[in-house]
Design brief:
Blueprint lengths: L2 H8 L6 E3 L4 E3 L3 H12 L21 H16 L5 E9 L2 E10 L2 H4 L1 E8 L8 H16 L4 E7 L3 H9 L3 E10 L2 E11 H4 L8 E3 L1 H7 L9
Parallel strand pairs: 5-6
Antiparallel strand pairs: 1-2, 1-9, 2-3, 3-4, 4-5, 6-8, 7-8
Bound molecules: coenzyme A.
């Protein structure tokens, strides 16, 4: 039996896949983790811009790659019933091209997820960011029975804001936050289940989502 399958018997996230016509999201094994760490070190954004709150892309090699691996392994060991983070990798034609994270705190009470993502620079601007966020929302709402998804981006992150707005989120205010020592506007968005339903896709396939939902303390609700 393949290592991923053996791991999935104990840690169901290793059996999780979200398949769309254009891409696949899956839980990273060590090969995927290495591919993602190496992709990130090749560049995620113009060095003159800063799309992230945590300045992980400014860390020089080999530390950036180590940090990415440590982050992914940390999520593996700390995913708990109520507080979890699925740092899924985005795969196109067998190649890891980026990551789409889905995370939650106090999940069994709130049923609310947050998302975060990036693509290698060579893979940006071709619609993959929109497709992978749609895939993550499908996993959250249809697979896990989420009632709300939230997201945010700096006011000058045009690509991320465009993806968010086209998928049906509602603006729910902005706030000032520190970015590289300066006060910068972070725009916040929210999507309730009723906002997502009109955007619901019928061409996204979930594999193994029920076992992961059970791990997190929620069975997939009937009809979701
Ligand atoms: C954000 C990100 C994941 C989006 O993925 P993507 O594949 O580039 O996004 P898409 O191609 O699906 O859509 C982006 C849209 O934003 C538009 N866009 C790009 N730059 C823009 C700008 N400065 N202002 C307004 N719109 C912009 C694109 O034209 C595109 O719209 P279109 O399809 O109508 O042409 C990706 O760009 C990325 O990894 N960026 C760096 C990391 C990052 O910002 N992560 C998110 C942190 S909140």
């Amino acid at each position: 039996m393949e290592l991923r399958q053996r791991l999935a018997e104990h840690l169901p996230m290793f059996g999780l896949e979200v398949r769309t016509p254009r891409l696949l999201l899956r839980y990273p094994d060590d090969e995927d983790a290495l591919a993602l760490a190496e992709l990130g070190a090749m560049g995620v954004h113009d060095p003159g811009t800063q799309p992230f709150s945590i300045l992980w892309t400014s860390v020089p090699p080999p530390h950036q790659q180590r940090n990415t691996l440590a982050f992914l392994w940390d999520q593996r060991s700390t995913a708990q019933r109520d507080d979890w983070h699925l740092p899924l990798v985005t795969v196109v034609d067998g190649e890891v091209v980026g990551t789409q994270g889905v995370l939650a705190s106090s999940w069994t009470v709130l049923r609310q997820v947050e998302t975060g993502s990036w693509l290698g620079r060579a893979h940006q601007g071709r619609g993959l960011g929109t497709e992978m966020r749609a895939a993550a929302l499908h996993l959250a709402f249809a697979g896990f029975g989420a009632v709300r998804a939230t997201t945010g981006a700096w006011h000058d992150n045009g690509a991320s804001l465009t993806v968010t707005r086209r998928l049906g989120y509602r603006p729910n205010g902005d706030r000032l936050a520190v970015r590289e020592g300066e006060a910068v506007v972070m725009e916040g968005f929210v999507m309730d289940r009723a906002d997502w339903e009109p955007h619901r896709r019928d061409d996204i396939e979930l594999v193994g989502a029920e076992a992961v939902a059970a791990l997190f303390g929620t069975e997939r609700p009937p009809g979701s």
